[in-house]
Specification:
By secondary structure, the protein is α+β, with helices and mostly antiparallel strands.
């Protein structure tokens, strides 16, 4: 019972249920996001976990009188009557006519960045320096609800396809991708490495579960300071056994992406609308071989110097080409050169100079690398030796091959890069909650 009005009071009702409580006095809990004083009444906007709820204070509504301790960024419990209202464009919404405010905690200082406007109007570096505060802005928060939806869709779809979720170590005996871009750690007197990917463990688990996936951090000690690179990011990986070809992996990823995009449209519509996100429709994803794509880029673009991989402008061109030619925001590029793929990638039996591998481009940027893995023991050992690797250093990994592994393959999908291009950002750091790059390890 409301102590002021004597009306029946429903405790902590989410905004999504306001329609069911019109005319009732309810409680909500949240943070005072904004106060707009209009002399004889005031709008008090309450920020909850997912919504900003408009509440209206007026002495006409009850005997409650708003006091000086009602300030922005204070946590509060607000009581009020649910009433229908309209947005500026005439859409239906609901608000509270305030009958009471209990302050639960007060801020000790004024926030360093304005967060109660539509968006953060500050340089990206300022935004990131003040991340504990700027993430409270509804638009900033919505980015990471979208990320939640992407991960949720990835998990739900693969679980429906009989994949088992796993969690692999992030402190490893060797780098999965080879090369020098690994972080070295002193581990009780031994040198170990932060995981570049869960690759070797994913493969190891194929004879156990047949299909596995993982969502987790990976680490790359690359001295890049670009708008598309992070030194720690979230990788969404899966590996599947008993494949007929690496095209099975591409087909599975197509299914994953279809499911994710449909989930975002259905369950994250408010965040999609708030961010103005362009969620792509996916029917099928076109495919082109690396050699053919490279030849097309050389004909159309100038000053192409790397004939073994794509430069960023080539990826951008291929993204536009796929959109014009197929109406697709996505493009698979297959059969990358053997020299540019990791040691575990299977070579094409018909042309050992290329691999049974692929990248997925999304709106002109690579978000996925994947392919078929070597499953034969002798073939894997021979390739390691050919690349100057010592098979004895990979003894536990090679147990997979030595004791029998089915044909298998998989991929890794970068969460931040996918989010970045889905939301039209220019810098991947905008799609990282607390980004880590060569210059930033705080907050």
């Amino acid at each position: 019972m409301d102590k002021v009005t004597g009306e029946l009071k429903t405790d902590c009702v989410p905004y999504s249920q306001f329609k069911e409580h019109v005319g009732e006095v309810v409680n909500i809990k949240g943070v005072i996001h904004n106060i707009r004083d209009m002399s004889d009444f005031a709008f008090v906007l309450i920020r909850t976990a997912r919504d900003v709820i408009q509440c209206v204070y007026s002495p006409e509504f009850s005997d409650y009188r708003m006091t000086d301790d009602v300030v922005e960024q204070a946590s509060a419990k607000v009581s009020g009557k649910v009433v229908p209202s309209k947005t500026r464009d005439g859409s239906e919404r609901y608000e509270l006519q305030i009958t009471g405010i209990d302050i639960l905690s007060r801020p000790a200082d004024i926030v360093p960045v304005v967060i109660n406007k539509k968006q953060i109007n500050a340089e990206l570096s300022v935004n990131l320096d003040n991340r504990p505060v700027t993430l409270r802005n509804p638009k900033e928060r919505a980015i990471f609800k979208i990320q939640e939806g992407i991960q949720r869709g990835f998990r739900e779809y693969l679980t429906s396809q009989d994949f088992t979720e796993v969690h692999t170590p992030k402190i490893n005996f060797a780098g999965a991708e080879g090369g020098t871009n690994v972080f070295r750690l002193d581990y009780f007197g031994k040198t170990v490495f932060l995981a570049q990917s869960p690759q070797l463990y994913k493969q190891t688990l194929i004879p156990v579960f047949e299909r596995v996936f993982e969502i987790g951090p990976v680490f790359r000690a690359e001295h890049h300071d670009t708008s598309r690179h992070l030194n720690e990011y979230i990788s969404m990986d899966f590996e599947m056994g008993f494949i007929d070809s690496f095209y099975d992996i591409m087909e599975m990823e197509t299914g994953v992406l279809k499911y994710i995009m449909n989930l975002l449209r259905e369950k994250y519509a408010s965040e999609v609308a708030l961010l103005g996100a362009d969620i792509p429709e996916i029917d099928s994803i076109p495919c082109i071989r690396f050699k053919d794509a490279k030849e097309m880029c050389v004909r159309k673009l100038k000053n192409i110097t790397d004939m073994h991989d794509f430069e960023p402008e080539e990826e951008a061109y291929l993204g536009k080409w796929a959109k014009q030619q197929y109406g697709s925001d996505f493009l698979f590029v297959t059969h990358f050169l053997t020299s540019k793929r990791p040691f575990y990638t299977m070579e094409d039996p018909e042309d050992p100079e290329v691999t049974l591998s692929f990248d997925l481009l999304f709106r002109g940027i690579e978000i996925t690398s994947g392919g078929q893995r070597i499953h034969d023991y002798n073939e894997q050992v021979e390739k390691m030796k050919r690349l100057g690797m010592n098979p004895e250093e990979f003894d536990t990994y090679l147990m997979l091959h030595k004791y029998g592994a089915p044909p298998h393959g998989g991929l890794g999908l970068g969460l931040e890069r996918l989010t970045m291009h889905l939301l039209g950002f220019k810098n991947v750091r905008s799609a990282a909650m607390f980004p880590r790059d060569i210059n930033r390890v705080t907050p």
